[in-house]
Design a protein that fits this description.
26% of the residues lie in helices and 32% in strands. It is of the alpha+beta class and 191 residues long. Strands 2-1-5-4-3 form a five-stranded antiparallel β-sheet. A two-stranded antiparallel ribbon has the order 6-7. Strands 8-9 form a two-stranded antiparallel ribbon.
Length: 191
């Protein structure tokens, strides 16, 4: 249809921000991939094989549990030596009983987010999802390794906060230096 072509033109061809979209039907046997649209040009830049997304979904599973709870989940789907991706898992439709019946999984170019966090100044800025997984960090190897910062007490405190803004002093266990930490939560669970 013309609406579908217009949406594809906007998201894949002109802005080139969204690089794949998948629609999953939620069945009694679990999620079932119903449709996938991929921007082949982006994946070709990284010499990704045609089955790259299938392999990626095995290594970095889609958080369907969040979607089934009707929550949007943002995850880092970048792999070292692979295609840099940030994945949004979005509940799409519900049945008359309120159960999620379809989920959209959209992969975005990770470099657009990463570039905002590359600078190393007097402070270190980074982006985490609701589980403490790094989405963007000045140390790119943290992003591509799938590193989590939940081992840091200050990060656990920030993630546990109910209020959207949090500030505290903390001491780096490795260097014994004192710092001031601050965080802001988004409506999508990122900190």
């Amino acid at each position: 249809t013309s609406d579908r072509e217009e949406a594809l033109e906007l998201s894949f061809r002109s802005q080139k921000l969204v690089v794949s979209v998948e629609l999953y039907n939620i069945t009694p046997n679990g999620p079932h991939l119903a449709q996938r649209v991929v921007s082949d040009d982006y994946f070709k830049q990284y010499d990704a094989k045609p089955d790259y997304l299938d392999t990626l979904r095995e290594l970095r599973p889609i958080p369907f549990g969040s979607a089934l709870a009707f929550k949007i989940e943002i995850t880092n789907s970048s792999l070292k030596g692979g295609v840099p991706l940030t994945t949004f898992t979005i509940p799409l439709t519900r049945d008359s009983d309120g159960r999620v019946t379809q989920v959209v999984v959209a992969d975005f170019r990770q470099d657009r987010i990463q570039n905002m966090f590359n600078s190393q100044e007097a402070r270190t800025n980074f982006l985490l999802n609701s589980r403490g997984e790094i989405l963007a960090h000045p140390k790119e190897d943290f992003v591509f390794s799938g590193k989590t910062l939940t081992g840091l007490e200050v990060v656990r405190k920030a993630l546990a906060q109910k209020l959207p803004k949090f500030q505290t002093k903390y001491t780096d266990e490795a260097t014994d230096e004192s710092f001031l930490a601050a965080s802001v939560k988004s409506d999508y669970g990122t900190t």
